[in-house]
Amino acid sequence: MSAPPTLLLTGAAGGMGTLMRGLLPSYGYALRLLDARPVEPLPGQDGPEGPVFTAELSDRDALREALHGADAVLHLAGISQEASFERVLTANIEGAYHLYEAVRAEGERTGGPAPRVVFASSNHAAGFTPRPTGPYPLPPEALIPVDTPHRPDTYYGLSKCFGEDLAQLYADRYGVDTVSVRIGSCFPEPSDVRMLSLWLSPGDGARLFHAALTAGTSGHTVVYGSSANTRLWWDLGPARALGYTPQDDSEVFAPALLAAHGEPDPADPAQSNLGGRFCTDPPMWPY
């Protein structure tokens, strides 16, 4: 019997990293965990799910050690909200560069293909794209396509544009296969009406990442990441083409959220674009 594929999970101590640590082992992955912060055991467990590397992405030796023999990387590390340009530059932009350089070097070391990277991009890479409006469900022609131009709404969104372009460079120049997933909002349940359109359930998140890690694609592929929501704003076709079959829909949460908040006003600057309140000044989190 062959050994399970080894997956390096960066950002393992973060919110999404913690969710994926609990879900991805059921798909057969042997996890390695990397974060600048200590990785705490999941509830009910005595220890983390695999070897832990506590290091910044700028620690090239630790990163190379963590990648040694890895089959793939799920890159969730970095700042997940707006911050000063200096902080975003260090954590998200330079951090992504260090990660891809280490992946390239691991492929060079083995003489084979470099580990595949699934990069956690964001809807905020296209945040100033006008959002479509109902009635829901929207017809296919009204959905935001995956090839919509970059329109970042923040320094955070800009870092995700950089990450996608960096992935394209490393695919074209070094043959590093990457799937960039423009994630909406991955939480156990949506917390406002806008999230009804962008919600990615943790279970569907694991399904999508597994599809991205195993799809027979090459080069750089960009997909949107959400559940099959009734109020969906974007085209999930490219994600489905990877083998992703979402099973959840945020509409079960709609009655309570609409009763609490009402339908958003599409003319409101905080509601008129894909990036929501990230398109306002100052941008607000969580969106």
From TrEMBL:
Domain NAD-dependent epimerase/dehydratase: residue ranges: 8-186
Gene3D superfamilies per UniProt: NAD(P)-binding Rossmann-like Domain
Entry-linked InterPro entries: Epimerase_deHydtase (IPR001509), NAD(P)-bd_dom_sf (IPR036291)
Key word Oxidoreductase present: yes
Molecular function as annotated in GO: oxidoreductase activity
Keyword Oxidoreductase applies: yes
Alphabetically ordered keywords of this record: NAD, Oxidoreductase
Pfam families registered for this protein in UniProt: Epimerase
Family under the similarity heading: Belongs to the NAD(P)-dependent epimerase/dehydratase family.
Descriptive protein name: Uronate dehydrogenase
Organism annotation: Actinacidiphila guanduensis
